[in-house]
Amino acid sequence: MFAGPIIARELLTAPRPPRYYAARASYAGGLLIVMLTVWQVLVGWDEGNALSILSRFGAILFSFFAYLQLTLMLFFAPIAAATAVAHEKDRRTFVLLLMTDLRDIEIVVGKLVASLLQILTLLLTSLPVFCLCLLLGGVSFGQVIDVFLVTFAAGFFGGALGMIVALWRDRTFQSIALTVLLVVLFLILGEAAALILPESIWIASALSPFQAIAEAIRPRPERLVGPLGGSSLVFTGIYLAAAALIVLASIIKLRVWNPGKNEPREQREGDEEGDVEVVEQLYEVDEAESLAESARRSPATVSAVIAEQVSEARGDRPESPRIGVATAPDSSEAEPYVRRETTGLHVPRRTHRRVVRKFRPYREVWSNPILWRELRTRAYGTKPLIIKGAYVLAFALGVAAYFTSIGPGSGPWEGAKAAIPALLAVLSLILVNAQGVTALTSERDTGALDLLLVTELSPQQFIYGKLYGVLYNTKEMIVLPIALAIGIWAMGYMKLDSLIFVLINFAVLVHFSAMLGLHAAITYTNSRQAVANSLGTIFFLMLGILFCAALIIQSRQEFARQLLSFLVFIGAGSVALYGSLGAKNPSPAIGLVALLTPFWSFYCIISILQGDFGAAFLVSLAVYSFALLSMLIPAVSDFDIALGRTNAIQG
Questions:
Q1: 129, 28 contact by CB (below 8 A)
Q2: Which residues does 144 contact at the CB level (< 8 Å), separation at least 6?
Q3: pLDDT tens-digit readout, 426-453
Q4: 332 Cβ partners below 8 Å, 6+ apart?
Q5: pLDDT (tens digit, 9 = 90+) per residue, 499-524?
Q6: Is 557 strand, coil or helix?
Q7: Region for residue 208 given its phi and psi (left: phi exceeds 0; alpha: psi -120 to 50; beta: otherwise)
Q8: List of residues 6+ apart from 561 with CB closer than 8 A
Q9: pTM score of the predicted model
Q10: How remote is the C-alpha of 346 from its chain's centroid?
């Protein structure tokens, strides 16, 4: 096929699973539920026959759809591309791909297009739903095309960015975390350019995807190129050109970065600077020379000579008789080596003298070896400072944007700036969740999980070691949001009881995010499916909470007319949450969590907006603590059932 064997294989195999069609139907159905919710918020139970009402509703609905789809594209497209390559590296199949006759461009472009195929299909699936806005009025066909061009360009750029990061890094968590942080940094820099240069709309819309979407959905009578807007074309051209440059760099660096030149993980731990560890050195010697030397030195066999040379290299002198020395039954002296008669044809061969360096002292392992490995070794790569530095930079930019927007006439919780601390906390939860799911999927893909399961480790040691190892390795993502909350309280923008509520709830959510990642990795044997379900669950859960809050704030009418639409929206969230958490390993506790979590989260939003922080704190603490225990207890007590290794699960 002209597109390459990787793309051809993806086109043949991707439509086979039923989840491929379920994803398209769910996405279109979710957009229709959003349409119903927005209608109830803006219009309510009125008939809305007036053209002005319908056109206003169509324009607002189109804005909701555009921003929602762009957010989903910017999140899932980079992660899909990064996970596709990282999964191959963990399974050690990417090296086999490099050994084939495929050219570098076929590998890079093939993996990129194959990873984005599902997402591009969902993008096309939403086109008929967007066209419904045309029937309502207030939206032109050129605006729809502009929105799709901007969304496609942003998604393709994000996919190329995730691809080059995954080709560069060797660990799945590093690939996912660094990809997410780079996307966040690009978004922050684009929004900063819009704030610094408010008069130059072209520059802001050319750098920021959200500014470009804002220009695309804005009704403008003039169009530079036919029905299309000039700003969307500029943004599309810039981002597609940048994506092409990233793909070109990936092609050039493909065989430079891969296979990885890092030493094995066990050799890398504890090395001192300037000390290159050599496990063993092999010297090739001629067999005739070795036999002659052995005959001159002692009447011993060839194996005894080699053993003596190894002992000399180690620095120890064996006191016991050499193994392999043939002694006479009635004499204490060894028999001389006698070469047997052959056919007369002597073919010189080469043997090896094995010289082994002196052993180094072993490090003492704790009573929980899993926790010791997570805390005391570099189990997730050798360069974690890159990820931590990118996170600190993104967090610092967000904090600077929050505090600089607080002026004399505006409080800390007014306008869009009030969402900045919440978004920073959500970013931390996503990174913790990514660490949790990859902590187990990497073990499974490398084959280490099967070895751990046949050891004497108990399920408690394994689960608790992984859980608190995840929290330790993401300590910067946990400490900085806590420090931000304390800083807001110290400046007088938050009461002490509210600070205590926030800190306790954030600690519970951090444990919930980490355990959600471990639960997804245990439930799904396919690493890509586990990563998608875990990150998708935490993302949609937090996005749904923020979306409900935005809709409630948007509506200034009586709340009774919105209740039905919110119930439908929350009910769909419950079904999706149960499908992610308990579809493969169902349990009454998981079912109760999937049923209650979206509804009680909605109650917490209402309580916070009404100023009842105590009720929101108690309810959220109870709900997410119960959700944490519903995943933790089966993993600790019924570990084999959670992994699906029993006959009850298999059939």
A1: yes
A2: 62, 127, 130, 131, 133, 134
A3: 999 999 999 999 988 888 888 888 888 7
A4: none
A5: 999 999 999 999 999 999 999 998 88
A6: coil
A7: beta
A8: 40, 44, 45
A9: 0.79
A10: 61
